[in-house]
Design a protein that fits this description.
Number of helices: 5
Strand content: under 5%
Structural class: mainly alpha
Largest sheet: none
Shape: elongated
Distance between the termini: 57 Å
Radius of gyration: 20 Å
């Protein structure tokens, strides 16, 4: 394994966090994150943001809000 450097780590950070890269690249980025506080902080922020978005996507809007949104979308569609 070799430290891939900040540029590579940041370019592939999202794929790394989703385990969408090969094992060698994953290990190289992991090694870099262990030794680079700035990239490690960026990975932490990205992971936290991704988890917050995932949680928000699981939550359902109250029925009344959902109905209001649908009604408004229909209004807009009817005028275009």
């Amino acid at each position: 394994m070799t430290d891939c450097g900040c540029e590579k780590a940041r370019a592939d950070l999202e794929e790394y966090l989703r385990n969408e890269i090969c094992r060698t690249e994953y290990a190289d980025i992991r090694e870099h994150l262990e030794s680079c506080p700035d990239c490690r902080d960026e990975a932490h922020v990205s992971r936290t943001l991704t988890e917050a978005v995932q949680r928000a996507c699981r939550e359902a809007a109250p029925e009344q809000v959902r109905l209001q949104v649908i009604a408004r979308l229909r209004e807009v569609q009817a005028t275009h």
